[in-house]
Amino acid sequence: MSATLSTSTSFNGGTSPYTCRWLQKSPTATTFSNLGASFTCTAGSLSSVPTGTLSTLGSWSFELQVTDGAATPVTVTSNTVTVTVQAVSTLTAPVISVSPSTIDSGQSATLSTITSFTGGTSPYTCQWLQKAPGATVLSNLGASFICTAGSLPTTPTGTLTTTGTWSLELQVTDSSATAQVATSAAVSVTVNAALGVNTPTANPSTVTSGGSSQLSASFTGGTSPYTCQWLQEAPSTTSFTNLGTSSSCTSPTSISSGTLTTTGAWMFELKVTDSAGTPVTVTSGAVTVTATPVTLDATTTNVSCTPTTVVVNQGSSCTVTVTDTSTTSPTVPTGTVTFTPGGPCTLQPATGPSATCSVPVTPINLAVTPLPVNAVYGGDASHSGSRSNTVNLTVTARSTTTSMTCVPSAVNVGIATTCTVTVTDTDIGGSIPPHGQVTVSSSGTGTFIGSPCNLSGTSATTTCHVTYTPGGTAPRTDKLTADYAPATTHLISSGNFQLGITSQVPPVASFTESATTVPTLTAINFDASASTAPSGTITSYAWDFGDTMTATGVTVSHSYAKAGTYTVMLTVSDSLGHTASASATKTITDRPPTASFTFSPAAPSVGQSVSFDGSGSSDVDGTITSYAWNFGDSSTGSGVTVTHTYTATGTFIVTLTVTDNSGNTGSSSAPIIVSQVSATGGHVKLIGYRAAPGFSIQNLQLDATQTLFAMGKNDGNITVKVYVLFNIKTPSGTSLVLYTQVVQLSPNQVINGRNDTRFSAQFKPMPGSYTVIATIYYSPSSSTRGDPSFKPDNASTKTFTFTVLGARFNGDEALTFAHTFHATSTQTFNAQEVNRANIPLLTRIDITVTNPDGTISSFTSPSFLLNPSQNRKDISFNLRLSNQNGHYCFTATLKYGIDTNGNGVLDNNEILGRGKTVKGCFNVVPNDGLAQNSCDDEDDD
Hints:
With 941 residues, the protein is mainly beta.
């Protein structure tokens, strides 16, 4: 920007002419420089000059220098003025908006600032500008106003009537020395023509009641899209209501008035709403549609039915014909016709101005006959209703047939037969179950039960039953007649049955029995030989004993397992098929239980516990529910097994009383002699011992457990505590000690470890031979093994051995070798080995050789694998000898074990046992042939 320098007071004095020069010094300069060229000036004049554009910020200094025209020129300088140049802030334009952006002519919009202006120098002046459609320049919209940076001014556009696009801006002017002007980007408002709706048209404008008219209307102007709502005002009403619902529309638009039933003047209008910023709604003028009354054509209604005579539940097809009888432009009647009876049907066009339809009429009973049928036509929009003629249907009952069967079809005099009467509806149409009664009569003498009988059933066939028992004495054929008397809807009918009658006399059942009252499980003999058959012969005798058991035959025998009262029934059948029965009552009483017991010891001492066992008691027809003991010394007990200790010597009578589930009792007694305690005291002995049968290892890898059994007896006269010590010498030479549990034995009591695991011991052996020494220990007071009161019975100590099988040499030629060979040769051994265990074993042969010079050499063969039970004959290995001639002797020992480390070699720490030891000798001589030699086992472990 620039400033203007002016002189406010001119110079004076000096000698003319004068020369003037403006001087300037920028903010960064130290001396003045010329501001433009010098010029001629006069005293009293006031000169001015622009500074030019000053861009360097800071304080600029300016002076006016005047030089006169004296011989020696004199120069004077004015005072210094300063101009401060500051940084100029650029004024930025605001951002404005207008809402709504589309309006109808005569409406207003609102201008708003959405982003204020910035920069420039305050104060600021704002001016809204507008440019109407067709104008080329902007004009002021209202007066200017003071505004501030950051403010968001708004203003209404005022009413805009000129249609088209209006352009609107906001202009801001600041207060800089050289004013800055910033104008916003223009926004526009589209002004549409005002919305106008024309009066609708109606086609036709006059309709008959029930008719309709097509309504149409057009509209102009406004802002799309548009929403239309048709309005209607019915005759005799004072307000419009909606015709249908509002919907989007375009001009022109139309709608049906719908059915107009009320006669008179109907008024219709169209209400249109546009989508201007402020929506405008305009309603048209009204159009009138006149609804006039309908003139109905007269009709006739005629009914005919085929057939006119029917049975109950048979249908007749009844047809109605409705005809328009108008003489001017008759039309076909429509709608429904209602038959009585029969119901409604819908008319279908027929020949000419007629319509017809049909219904089935089915009488369901005889309540009304003849049955009148007529129809009524209710009319339609063009036709009046009418009533038909009446057609009378003749209704008759339905025909039936009656039949009868009797079972049996032939009976003896006095024997009843059951007769079934069947009545069947045989007529056309839908069948109806024939109900009512049937009376059965006989041509002969006899009695009926159940006649008359009532028919039952839900189909075309119904039945009922009667029982007939013929009387008299002579054989004959009776004609039985069934007469059907219907209830309401059927005709009567009859049926016959010919019943054959004989005069045979039925058999008579009779029997005797060997007893009427017996205990359970007692046989009773029954004899039916007294039964007779007057008219034939008895062919079978069937017995029912009343306890679910049966039998056949003239004579039978039967016993009852449980007490009670039973009815025995005998049924006899004769050769004519007749049966007769007789019965008798038997009373079966309960058997008492049987008491039985044992005790141990048989000869107890005072203070010794005696065991009593009543489990030998029994009840053949029930169960024992209680055991009561009387020990003969005023003491008692209960239970199947009990113990008792006598405190005095003597002979006591012990009685056991048992009671069964029926309350019966049985008793048994026995004497017991109790003696004084013998002075011999306590003593036991070992009377049995052994290892488990078939003692052999089952699985060396799993360390199978084996059992040692002992058997001991208390041969003293007091109760003692006992156990057995097993001292076992193992194949390796070490000792193993095992114990049984400590158990109590009363005098003469025996304990067997095979039955009582407390008197056995278990361990896990390896293959080889074992020696066991078993010693029994006893104490009268202590239960702790090792207590000093325990004494061994060395006299009964037992020693036994057993072997756990492994691998061994096998066969007569278990080990063969060369008898004579050269000193430099290699001795070859061939062996046969068998695995007696049931797991794989690894074997080797250790050989000790005594050389001819007396020195000892040791050799170990390769290892050989033997599977369970395998017998190997292909084992062979070589032995390198010393270079000596002479006599050699050797000892070969078979050793076996499990290859636990999987290296294929039987290591020393894997050896479980050894088999047979083989000894032999051979000679080494120069240049001799070879001979085979074999040796037998000399040592078997």
